[in-house]
Specification:
The complex is a heterodimer of chains A (557) and B (321).
Chain A (H helix, E strand, L loop, with lengths): L1 H4 L3 H7 L15 H11 L3 H23 L3 H10 L3 H6 L11 H28 L1 H6 L1 H6 L7 H26 L8 H28 L3 H24 L2 H4 L3 H6 L11 H21 L24 H28 L2 H10 L1 H9 L5 H25 L1 H7 L3 H5 L5 H35 L4 H10 L2 H17 L9 H16 L24 H24 L6
Helix pairs in contact in A: 3-10, 4-7, 4-10, 7-10, 7-11, 7-12, 10-11, 11-12, 11-15, 12-16, 16-19, 16-22, 17-19, 17-22, 19-22, 19-24, 19-25, 22-23, 22-24, 22-26, 24-26
Chain B lengths: L2 E12 L2 E12 L3 E5 L6 H8 L7 E6 L8 H5 L2 E4 L11 H12 L4 H10 L13 H13 L5 E5 L7 H16 L3 E6 L2 H7 L2 E6 L2 E7 H7 L1 E8 L12 E7 L2 E7 L3 H10 L2 E7 L3 H9 L11 H5 L2 H11 L1
Parallel strand pairs in B: 3-7, 3-8, 5-6, 6-7
Antiparallel strand pairs in B: 1-2, 1-4, 8-9, 10-12, 10-13, 11-12
Helix pairs in contact in B: 3-5, 4-5
Classes of the chains: A mainly alpha (557), B alpha/beta (321).
């Protein structure tokens, strides 16, 4: 009572302190504090990303002198990477003009690691902007002496800092490694090219975070832009060069780092990042805290019959993610399918490839390319499988499982319905990608049989995807806090099954991954035994996971 | 009379934290039972064990005659639960969430659902993310009461509701009681418990420290007596069970153990009573007796100071109301 009626005279006095004058507080007040806070929250996450990217890159670069010791070996690597199919996977042909270790690294890695940098930049920005608003924490922060744009500025600064550290890390790790043709100047450009891509997508995420009220939606929209950028550069690197010039990843690759060492394409990245940031600020000025650009609409006052069935309900929660991946994988399949015809034409042109084909047991170039594409598609489908199978964890810790499991819905049916969507969904997105691949492949090669053939080849990965869901289920059922370890499967499949041949990993390593046991259709013939074994393993894992969840406490913190 | 809930010696630890430490609780069929205690006393943990969401380390729990862990699903058809912290699905409307929860429980009385939505003034077309805490709470309350559950487990159900809605909630629980349903109401709003509950259990540090009807509980503690007498009251200070005795300008002020009230009144009458004010311990005072002792034990002899601390107690009561 007394406190409320006391005139706030002392407060006024301190307000006149010039450094704390509220009249001089602008829309960016508090950015510094929020930046330190964001760095504190990300003190593990960001270093792990950065160290992993730097170590992965420097290990790959360091392996080249052993792998390609002779000029002959480099020449055969150059030829293996010169097919349009390989160009679509990696980067523009100009890198091949002088295939030194540096050119190899930039050609084969920059496209992929650039995507990873974009991913972590997007996630960093949405985590510190829209996710904070969605949970309501931003309200608390903004009620303090914090300017309107301070959270956005702090999130972007966090991403900028992380990208600069990454650029320096890459420059030092590569420049200091003493690998022939990988010098300091080129390495600094190599690191900066990554940071430039990261900045563009951080700014893109800053825009998408203004549009939708959901962090998930904001990340998803930014991922879609990233996917488009990747496909544009793939299409441009194979065909019309102009398309690559529409993609930030294309810009980074057109520095021709370690070949020409051009800095100016990075200015395009910088300009795009600035433009997107300006757009984000403009959009932020037009909306309320917590709201999207459009006012929230109402919905049905009653639930339809399907929604109140456990599977129907799980479907409702999963369908946005599933649609996103279905579209992304279909488009990815279509993109690879469109270069399948070119792959076929290469057979006559490159004599060295015929030797490589002999090693594959008589498969055609198109078939072995298709088999390689399948691994990439399966890795993306496995990412979906993990996200979908980990959904119960998010529901449980978000306290939304508690009221449901206090009804007559059993734990087995609740978790089972989520797993059912994950199993069927991952199968469907994989089949769709094979269908898109086959349809465009058939169009470019004129071989209609490719449609069923490649769809079937994609479906051969279904049992491996089910094992992925099963591993996530076991972790969730028995060690819920370790559910994220299921990410080891898509990551491992990518490293061992896709990069393995490039890094010349020993053959046995592919046996560690369920994806390594899948017959390489259409380059190999169908082998039913491993598919059957994988299916049985998946079934066992799912049963064990469900049993574990029935035995443990619900976690509500 | 059979017991809807009977719990004995329940122990539950989370890592090194012992959330429940030998908790005993009995709730008879058809009664509204108040479950009182501060944050972190173990109220929510107890309810979650009763729901089979958590598994007790030791002790026994019976709910409607069955095992809450083993028969969770069968039991859930017969009970309804309102969590203390309701989180909704951001892309589902409140109406959809009500229907989902009620139908998964095994049935929905549409008329009752619509009537409850009307009474609680809930807009069922809004999406989960746009509801305030109070409105999310209403969704869970409507979903719980729209079904024909025999047993209602309510974990601080009215946190976030405004006073008008609090009144509606009390009416609705009154109706549930009249319909013969059993209610376990965890709360720290004492006015609510005093108004609604037949019996009360006070939980502290994972144990029930006191259980009984409000009358019984009051009997266990001290009644405050203030009297103005014609002559000084002799012998009052010599009586057992009289605490905090003060005499100013012919006015006597003391706190009396329930069992000694009769003796005190006789002595006062002998001195010629001019005016007499006596009031039973409020629930606040009961609570303070168990919680207001951060330094001493619950039964420390100087507990009177707190029992008598009318100012603090009344202040808390005002705040609660």
């Amino acid at each position: 009572m007394n406190a409320a009626t006391t005139p706030p005279a002392p407060a006024r006095a301190s307000d006149r302190d010039p450094g704390r004058d509220p009249d001089r507080a602008g829309p960016l007040t508090g950015t510094g504090t929020l930046l330190r806070f964001a760095l504190r929250r990300d003190r593990v996450r960001l270093p792990v990303w950065i160290v992993a990217l730097v170590l992965g890159t420097s290990t790959t670069a360091g392996s080249f002198p052993d792998l390609y010791a002779t000029a002959e070996a480099r020449q055969s690597a150059r030829q293996a990477n010169s097919s349009p199919a390989a160009l679509a996977m990696s980067g523009p042909e100009h890198f091949l003009s002088d295939y030194t270790y540096g050119a190899m690294l930039a050609h084969q890695m920059l496209g992929f690691t650039g995507v990873l940098v974009a991913l972590f930049s997007i996630l960093t920005v949405t985590r510190h902007t829209r996710a904070e608003e969605e949970t309501g924490r931003a309200e608390l922060v903004r009620s303090a002496v914090v300017g309107r744009y301070a959270p956005l500025a702090a999130a972007l600064s966090t991403a900028v800092l992380a990208n600069v550290v990454l650029a320096l890390g890459l420059a030092v790790a590569l420049g200091g490694a003493g690998i022939p043709d990988i010098g300091w100047g080129g390495s600094l450009l190599y690191g900066s090219a990554h940071a430039a891509v990261g900045l563009v997508f951080a700014a893109v995420a800053a825009v998408t975070a203004q549009i939708t009220p959901h962090a998930r939606g904001a990340s998803g929209m930014a991922f879609a832009v990233l996917g488009l950028a990747y496909i544009l550069r793939a299409a441009g690197d194979v065909g019309t060069d102009a398309l690559s010039w529409l993609s930030p990843i294309g810009w980074a690759q057109r520095t021709y780092v370690y070949v020409d060492d051009r800095w100016w394409p990075l200015l395009l990245c910088l300009a795009a990042a600035v433009a997107a940031t300006v757009l984000a600020v403009r959009l932020a000025a037009r909306r309320d805290l917590g709201a999207g650009l459009r006012p929230a609409r109402g919905g049905p006052a009653r639930a339809g019959g399907a929604l109140t069935h456990p599977v129907g309900f799980a479907w409702r929660l999963h369908r946005g993610l599933l649609f996103g991946f279905a579209v992304a994988l279909f488009v990815l399949g279509v993109a690879y399918g469109s270069v399948l015809g070119d792959a076929e034409e290469m057979v006559g042109d490159v004599a060295a490839l015929e030797d490589a084909l002999a090693a594959l047991g008589g498969a055609s170039v198109a078939e072995s390319f298709a088999a390689m594409v399948m691994i990439v598609l399966a890795v993306v489908a496995a990412v979906y499988a993990v996200l979908a199978a980990a959904r119960p964890r998010a529901e449980e810790t978000g306290r939304r499982a508690e009221p449901l499991l206090a009804t007559a819905l059993s734990r087995r049916r609740w978790m089972g319905s989520h797993l059912a969507v994950a199993l069927l969904g991952s199968t469907a997105v994989m089949a769709l990608s094979g269908l898109g691949f086959g349809a465009l492949g058939a169009a470019t090669t004129g071989d209609a049989a490719l449609v069923p053939e490649l769809t079937a080849a994609a479906l051969a990965y279904a049992p491996a995807l089910w094992v992925t869901v099963g591993v996530a289920a076991v972790l969730y059922g028995w060690l819920p806090r370790a559910t994220a370890l299921a990410w080891a499967l898509p990551l491992g499949a990518f490293v061992v099954d896709y990069l393995g041949p490039i890094l010349r990993l020993p053959e046995w390593t592919t046996r560690l991954s369920p994806f390594g046991h899948v017959p390489r259709l259409p380059a190999e013939s169908v082998a039913w035994t491993p598919l059957l074994v994988l299916t049985l393993v998946a079934a066992a894992l799912l049963a064990v996971g469900l049993a574990g969840f029935r035995r443990r406490d619900l976690e509500m913190t | 009379m059979t017991n809807a809930i009977s719990v004995s010696g329940l122990v539950k630890s989370f890592g090194r934290t012992r959330a429940l430490d030998g908790l005993d609780l009995t709730v008879a069929d058809g009664e509204v039972h108040g479950f009182l205690g501060p944050n972190g006393a173990g109220k929510s943990t107890t309810l979650r064990v009763l729901l089979g969401l958590l598994r007790a380390d030791s002790g026994t729990a019976r709910l409607l005659g069955r095992d809450p862990w083993r028969d969770a699903v069968a039991l859930h058809r017969r009970l309804a639960y309102v969590p203390g912290d309701v989180e909704l699905w951001p892309n589902l409307t409140g109406g959809e969430a009500v229907d989902l929860l009620a139908r998964l429980r095994g049935g929905l009385d549409r008329r009752r659902r619509d009537a409850l939505i009307e009474r609680f003034d809930l807009d069922p077309t809004k999406k989960g993310r746009s509801y305030s805490k109070g409105n999310r709470q209403k969704v869970a309350i409507v979903a719980a009461l729209a079904s024909d559950a025999e047993l209602l487990l309510l974990d601080e159900p009215t946190a976030g509701l405004d006073p008008l809605m609090e009144v509606v909630f009390q009416d609705v629980i009154g109706e549930a009681k009249a319909a013969g349903r059993t209610v376990l109401l965890s709360s720290h709003i004492l006015a609510q418990v005093e108004k609604l509950c037949d019996r009360v259990s006070i939980v502290r540090l994972g144990r029930v420290v006191q259980s009984g009807s409000l009358t019984e509980l009051r009997h266990l503690t001290r009644t405050t007596v203030e009297a103005e007498t014609e002559r000084p009251v002799a012998g009052l200070d010599a009586l057992d069970g009289v605490h905090d005795l003060r005499t100013e300008n012919g006015r006597v002020h003391c706190a009396v153990d329930g069992a000694r009230l009769d003796d005190v009144v006789r002595l006062l009458a002998g001195a010629g009573v001019r005016s007499l004010v006596s009031h039973p311990p409020t629930l606040e005072e009961l609570m303070l007796r168990h919680y207001g002792d951060a330094t001493g034990g619950p039964d420390a002899p100087d507990a009177t100071g707190r029992t008598d601390g009318g100012d603090g107690g009344d202040g808390a009561a005002e705040a609660a109301r």
